[in-house]
Description:
Layout: E1 4-8, H1 11-14, H2 27-30, H3 33-36, H4 39-44, H5 46-62, H6 67-78, E2 83-87, H7 93-96, E3 102-104, E4 107-114, E5 120-122, E6 141-145, H8 155-163, E7 167-171, H9 183-189, E8 193-198, E9 210-213, H10 216-229
Parallel strand pairs: 1-2, 1-7, 2-3, 7-8, 8-9
Antiparallel strand pairs: 4-5, 4-6
Helix pairs in contact: 6-10
The chain binds 2'-O-acetyl adenosine-5-diphosphoribose.
The site of 2'-O-acetyl adenosine-5-diphosphoribose has 25 residues, from helix 1.
Amino acid sequence: MEKIVILTGAGISAESGLGTFRDAGGLWAQHRIEDVATPEGFARDPALVQAFYNARRAKAATARPNAAHVALARLQADWPGAVVIVTQNVDDLHEKGGAQEVLHMHGRLDQALCAACGHRWPAPEEMEVGEPCPACRAPSARPDIVWFGEMPYDMDEVFAHLSGADLFAAIGTSGQVYPAAGFVQEAAAAGARTVELNLEPSATVSQFDETRFGPATRTVPEWVAELLAD
Ligand code: OAD
């Protein structure tokens, strides 16, 4: 049975009202990466960083999955082979849309992480600076988000999936952040067909066998319907 590996990025959640990073007016136009998405930024000004993620957590909590998230969940349920969803997104819209298994390589807004002992727990709506870890009591709670300079999660598992993929799709990602931007090459080297679904061509568009441009709420349900009809 054909195995499908899908990488998603901020573009799949854009039509659910969550901002992307690099589009005009995106998050990285409003905030400096060094300030809010690096361990050094957190060490310098933890209150600023907690406020940034508290705001994003509040927004994600009220966001609803869109037709693209729902279509991928349907593909996972109805495809006869394995469908692995790897997301760079820190929202939970894949899960809210019904997806069964999702690898959150850049972490999750709804989890807290102890920087001292590595314990994880459900994040409160508002995280505060110096909040104690429920396991070790160190005042080291941070958002469970992978920052620049840190190692993304589940990479061994993701690369194992890529090496066994028959079809690889990248959806709503600009192809500018590694290692995710390198997945297409990895999958192609393993013999997978590759397809990009995005609003506009990504930085790695030339590496894909097939491209489908348009809003994810249109392109993803169409693509899934075609796959399931074949
Ligand atoms: P980007 O903001 O870099 O790219 C979003 C992509 O989605 C762009 O290529 C857009 O063209 C596309 N897009 C926008 N609206 C869309 C829509 N309605 N339908 C389909 N596509 C749409 O976001 P990512 O590639 O996810 O990491 O960014 C990767 C990582 O960089 C993020 O996980 C984050 C960020 O810094 C960390 O914070 C660690």
